[in-house]
Design brief:
Structural class: alpha/beta
Radius of gyration: 17 Å
Number of domains: 1
Largest sheet: 6 strands, parallel
Helix content: 25-40%
Shape: globular
Number of helices: 8
Order of helices and strands: EEEEHEHEHEHEEEEEEEHHEEEHEH
CATH superfamily: Glycoside hydrolase/deacetylase
Distance between the termini: 8 Å
Amino acid sequence: MRVLAFTIDLDRDCNTAVRGETAAASRSCGVMTAPCHDASSQGMELLADMLRSMAFPATVFSEGDSLRSLPEPSLLRGLEPACHGMEHEDLTGESTGIMLEDDQLADIIARSWDAVVSTTGAVPRGFRAPYLNIDPRVLGLVREQGFSYDSSMTEEVVNGALKPHFLPQGLWEFPLARDTDADGKVIDSYLWAMHEGRRPESDYIRMIDRFQEGVLVMATHSWHVMESVRGGAKDSRQTSAELDAISRMLGHAQDSGFELLTLSAAEDLLNAGR
C-alpha cells in the first residue's frame, strides 16, 4: 500500500505546555496567554473548505475544548473526527513535570472521547497525544477507552517505507514520518517548520516523492494557517499562501498515485489483511 493520510490537530491557538500546570496555555510572539481558540476555529473552517473542494479525505484530532469552541460542529462534515485530549494535557509529564495518576489520565481520555461523540455524533477510533507525548501506560488507557489506533509516534522512513504496526496494547500505530532533506537534515511530516517560515513547501514535496510504501501521515495545526508562534497573526495574503501550499502538496500526492485515505479507512485495509 502507498497511502497518504492528511491529519489536522484542532487545538488551542499556539498551544504551549506550562510547568506545573496540567492544561496548556496559548503563546504567540513570546507572550503567554490564557487559552484561546479563535485562530484554531477560523483555520479549521478554511482547511475544511479547501479539503471539501478537493474531495480530499482527512482525519481531525480534536482537543475537546477546541472542538466545543467551534462556531458550528458541521465544519467537520465529511472529515474523520478523532481525539487529542481535552485541554491539550501533557499525558506523560514530559513537558509539564506533572505525573498524572491512572484515574486522572483515564478521565481526560474519556472526556475527550465524550466531547467528540456529543459534538459530532461519531464514535472516534483514533487518538493523538498532545505534544505527541505518549508512553505504554497512556497507550493502554487509550485502548481501554475503546480506541483502535494511535498516531502519536514519529518514526524513520527506511528505504522509502514506513508501515503502520500493531502495538502490544492492542492498537494500530500510524506514526508520523521522519526523513532527510536534500542537505541531509532531518525533516518531519508535521508541517510546523513550514508554517513557522523555516522550511519551503518543496522540502515536503520531496518527502512525498521519496515515499514508496506504507502510510505517509502528514499533519498540521488548524491555527497554524492563521498565526505562528514566532510571528503572531498572519495577514490574509500569508494565510492564502499557506493554504495554497498545502493544497499543492496534497494535489501532488494525488497526481503521484498515492491512495488518499483517512486513518480509519487505512486501518480498515490493514484489518482486511491488505
